[in-house]
Design brief:
The protein is mostly beta strands. The protein has four helices and 25 strands.
Amino acid sequence: MGRVLAAAALAFLSVSSVLAQQAGKSSECGEGKLCPSKYGQCGVGAFCLGGCDPLNSFSLDSCTPAPICNSEDYDFDSLDSIQPNTEYLGDASKAKWVSSGKPELYEDNVLLTLSETGASSSGTLLASTSYVWYGKVTAQMKSSRGKGVVSAFILMSDVKDEIDFEFVGTDLRTAQSNFYFQGIPDYDNGDNLTVKSSTFDDYHTYELDWSPTQLTWSVDGTVLRTLKRSDTWNTTTNQYHYPQTPARVELSLWPAGSSKNGQGTIAWAGGLVDWNAPDVEKFGYYYAMVKEIKVDCYPTPDGVKKKGDKAYIYTAKSGTNDSVAITDDNTVLKSLLGTGTDMDADYPKAKESKSADTPAAASDLATVPGLTGAGPGTNGHPGNNGNDGTTGETAGGSGSSSSSSGGVGGFSQGTDPQKTSEASLPKERGLQSSLFAALVAVLALLVL
């Protein structure tokens, strides 16, 4: 089902940034040494950070090195650890999570929101800034509910190795498990896991325990599924189709039941999203709640090429575990005009004849998935060239990405999480609507 979700996300991308160049399945991002997002668009800046596909980049080093695994417990008593992807430049010491859409704070939980219009109209995605290359990852959370609404807790690598927990809003007693190797669809990989009580009403602890030889899915401390690497040998490709490359932790809520998606995706999600559902009428949005994430990194795999201890890079286009190396390479761009091959690229200075407060002209390069005209002097937001950047990547359960800043449609790159006041679920929709109106007034954009 995860590949169906990816197809749905691709549908959203078809109307995104006209300045982003398309990188088809068989083509690479050639011009300008660009980087591809998960769904085929090419650009610089945020395109070259987490989620950048090295196998379809101009070169393997077009994507920035990925921050190495860090064992940590992540609580959400504030949103200080979350940075929108219009601002994140690759420094995992300054931000633990990159956001797309509109995360909110409520009673020591981060809310992943989904609204009909405004900043989270394609949902909300949080992606870890540090990667995991084998380890135990645990999420204490509540899913969303309702027709067409899907919540997800997944591990997603840049070459599309993937491990999933997904929650369809019409089936609150089931956690769907799945896995993929390099995004290759295999519809026998999914399995439904029974949860003892409502995934919406009650907190549950979902755990992915991933080693080089075995993967388990657990709910509330009980292992419900085990996958052995030895059972994934593919006789056609002569490879183990087992997730095996460094992955980001991703948490998302997205509208699988959008009318823009295929009928198969809509049916899987329980039907079209009901924008008059009680949660939407009362709060202005659907929501999933995440209370805590724990990451316990496992030791470096045997035989890995190791020239440092700060970052993961790919050394070959095979995209398998033996193509990953650990280095001391820099992971931080100087600006959103940078790439892995030009980490120090910066915005051009404003002309001396202009006042110091006058921003430089916006760049024609796509810098953040879903934005157009984002460039110098704009902090990743659309510039003054008339483009408003309205759609982009979505928070699909099988590999989502991108964020926004106050916009309409999709993952709006939105408001600075550090400045977002605590959400109040008891508030009625009128207050939330005014908040979305304010966001829409800021800028239009999107992401997934």
